Amino acid sequence: xxxxxxxxxxxxxxxxxxxxxxxxxxxxxxxxxxxxxxxxxxxxxxxxxxxxxxxxxxxxxxxxxxxxxxxxxxxxxxxxxxxxxxxxxxxxxxxxxxxxxxxxxxxxxxxxxxxxxxxxxxxxxxxxxxxxxxxxxxxxxxxxxxxxxxxxxxxxxxxxxxxxxxxxxxxxxxxxxxxxxxxxxxxxxxxxxxxxxxxxxxxxxxxxxxxxxxxxxxxxxxxxxxxxxxxxxxxxxxxxxxxxxxxxxxxxxxxxxxxxxxxxxxxxxxxxxxxxx
Amino acid sequence: xxxxxxxxxxxxxxxxxxxxxxxxxxxxxxxxxxxxxxxxxxxxxxxxxxxxxxxxxxxxxxxxxxxxxxxxxxxxxxxxxxxxxxxxxxxxxxxxxxxxxxxxxxxxxxxxxxxxxxxxxxxxxxxxxxxxxxxxxxxxxxxxxxxxxxxxxxxxxxxxxxxxxxxxxxxxxxxxxxxxxxxxxxxxxxxxxxxxxxxxxxxxxxxxxxxxxxxxxxxxxxxxxxxxxxxxxxxxxxxxxxxxxxxxxxxxxxxxxxxxxxxxxxxxxxxxxxxxxxx
Lengths: 277, 279
Description:
The complex is a heterodimer. By secondary structure, chain A is an all-alpha fold. In chain A, 71% of the residues lie in helices and 0% in strands. Chain B is globular, with a radius of gyration of 23 Å. Chain B has two domains: 3-51, no CATH class; 56-275, MetI-like fold (Orthogonal Bundle). In chain B, helix 6 runs parallel beside helix 12 (220-226).
């Protein structure tokens, strides 16, 4: 390798590292600010190391606001929506992939077409429907409409398509029914895509703000994004900053930890959402 | 149709029932509602195209459209360029490459509201941004700066997302292509412009369509950081306020119908880009 090429490599490495650290600095700043004494968070000049570490700031969201409730609601809604999606999408993917019946392709195309239309376009009539069903300020309004996804159905159908028909034929000759084949053959072979789907849906749901704000804005059903936004509005003074930073960092923890432990699946999920895998 | 196929058909029912009720029915109804003056509590009155006529002349709606456009272009053009540059640098093996990627991916794993809460502090006059760069900008309380504040934050949040997509795209390109170009003695720029970039075109097309859609969907940062003030009321926030604060659901539906056609155009443009790629 020439000296020039080597210098280029070192420069490139230095640039991407510096950039990465600048990106991460924002999160580090939030974490440090969460344990600073209230008077120090907006001090000039900026201090990265607090004069004393105020660990008790971390419990402020729990003692001063219904943060625990918001957090619990988010976990409950996120887990339920994820399970529902994995079940409905796997069943539909199996149905669309391995059985033939009239209307199958039409149904699949209609499902795919809805991929093009984001929630934003339909949320007014969707809200009116939830209102008519009496589901405003209920978990049902948060969970049921999010119970399946076009992306998930598409993903599961593609994955199940790769399973050879002969395998299912053999199981059938051995007397396995439709559901037994699903449980014994299909599911074990598409565990990877199912996991990526689950992770992706959970993350999307954890981030969801607009719909929960509409259908479950009351204190008992607020999820984290809605709750955090409300807490933010009530704590604009400097004394509220460490508490808000603690709350924000805690709100990020579940998905960031999931990401750190399941990085490959996460990256797969994002790439699959763009149809790249 | 065999009995087995009949059983198989029923397995799609849970998903299809949810779709019919919560996606297709509201999707059709939004067209219908756009022709009415309507709030949840009072009976709907048919007004024909009055809602569309109103929007065509409403300066607030036009401003929201322009703000959405500014936010989308301002955020996603730099984010895509940055992501592509980073992907080119990061897709090759390097010391600590995995860790460096992780730093860029982290913002993707956070939620918009939580991150917006954090950025309120970053953008404070005494916050991280001003103090690091030696600036004295009131980012969130001036019409000159607030739109840019949202753009800066969103570039930070979204670059990693597109970096993942570009890295996935690069990993699918055959290695021989890069090697052949290197052997032919083409310089790094020539290799990029004449080989890598054209081959990445499908990925770039997907990324740009996703970028436009994500840009037009923006809601949380505008709510948390500025509540739509100082030139940051985007279309989504306009719909929200029109439907739920002013109870003009017909008007909000008309905006949705308009956005529906915008998004259809974006998607069709994507399909065209792909077709050209195949030809």
